Structure prediction request, 544 residues.
Amino acid sequence: MKAFVGKGVYGAIAAGTVSIFRKRDEAVRRIHIEDTEAEKQRVELAMKESTAQLQEICEKAGKEAGKSDAAIFEIHRILLNDDDYHNAICKVIEDQQVNAEYAVSTAADNLSEMFLAMEDGYMRARAADIRDISDRMIRNLTGVTSDQTISRNKAVICASEFSPSEIVSIDKEKVLAFVTERGSLNSHTAILVKDMNIPAVFGVGKEFLSVIKEGGEIIVDGFSGEVFFEPDEETRRRFVRKAEEDGNRKRLLQELKGRENVTRDGKKIDICANIGSIDDVSAALSNDAGGIGLFRTEFLYLEGSDYPTEEKQFIAYKRVLESMKGKKVIIRTLDIGADKQADYFQLKKEENPALGYRAIRICLTRPELFRTQLRALYRASVFGNLGIMFPMLTSVSELKEILAVCTAVREELAAQGIRYGENVELGIMIETPAAALISDRLAPMVDFFSIGTNDLTQYTLACDRLNPDIERFVDPHHEAVLRLIGMSAENAHKYGVRIGICGELAADMALTETFMRMGIDELSVSPSFVLPLRDFVRKIKINP
Ligand code: PEP
Ligand code: MG
Prediction:
């Protein structure tokens, strides 16, 4: 048995077999090859396998999402079987006498560069498609999965680290747990995993992948952060007991469904759920969330290889709104950038991406992108109770610009005879110190505030939320952060504006009383935290 300790991301226990997820640059090593014909045959086989997978995905997408989504995979299938693509790979194998994986990777780099240099926007967008099909080819060649279309059984997915887009690309039905060598608890990857209720441990150390073996037995304890590879009998027994206890605790919490979030002295608070995809809505409902306090829409953008169309977004937002049956649903506009990268956005590499071109800054400088999302949101608004929220705001002028775009979108829809909800609320995230400090100026312009404590903490304490090496300097209860929250709450209420917290601190029960005393109206947390938080609120008293 080998034991590892990392940081528990989501508290639950899983036991199963290891599936190693290697990134493309980890999977692709240059190996000198004598038998080039054999390598070319491997390419043929991988092409057949990739074509069959794309066919399957294309049919699935056609049924589940519509023709325009299926078309993307059809383009992938055509590109994959194009002679130029095939010849480019074989030429690298012949000329350089290298292995098929390396040849695919090199040919993909060359071809995507060529597409990127083209004038025509349509052709430039094909660069991302080439990379996508080449990733699939490499996965099929290496037999190492980063795509669950080729991993048949549910497994514990182990990796050096995951990016948010990698997490969204993995079929959750095939995941028992996640374990990584590196990773920060405040990263979007960690947040996503938590919202999906998947047991996970991050940061178990850099020897992990070299010790474990594909298909080996593994136990993951998301509570304590412990991971056991090839556990002994005693450890197995211990974890069966622990999993049973956890199951009993969760069953008891179910009794709180339908009950109010009210303290012993009568103070109420709304407890809502954060979601990252339509799939998470069922967890929000089964945990009896009062609504959706934050739908992070960027994951719709990360799961594809091109911008999601207005129609695709409309369908997604409509589904969430309908499923929540009139309960409040706050949908946040695109917050891409920093750790959330999609190739087709072609964002430049930045020295300080968290301080860079991100979120509302992208939307305001790429108006077509913003307009498309807002049109989809307003169109969907007739199907439920929608609030639209804007991330990463720092100034009054940005907010004026945003509100003007919203007005223009509404006017455009009206002119086209397209219906939209009359009562759509507009709100902003308070997640920069600037926004908190001018919250008295911002409050009269909006319907609600929601505090993003993940970024507010990062920007206030000057601590990159992705850097696990400085975690000991990140004090989430830092007085500066709490003062900014308190100040925002006071200013919100001065203008009759509702204020919630949707960052991870919302679930921190050591602060629940403080937040309630500040007058915070809503806490929005990962779905599985709704009932434990309700349980806690019902046991406390706010007034001495
Ligand atoms: C936050 O910053 O607290 C927040 C909720 O937004 P995100 O974690 O998506 O950046
Ligand atoms: Mg944020």
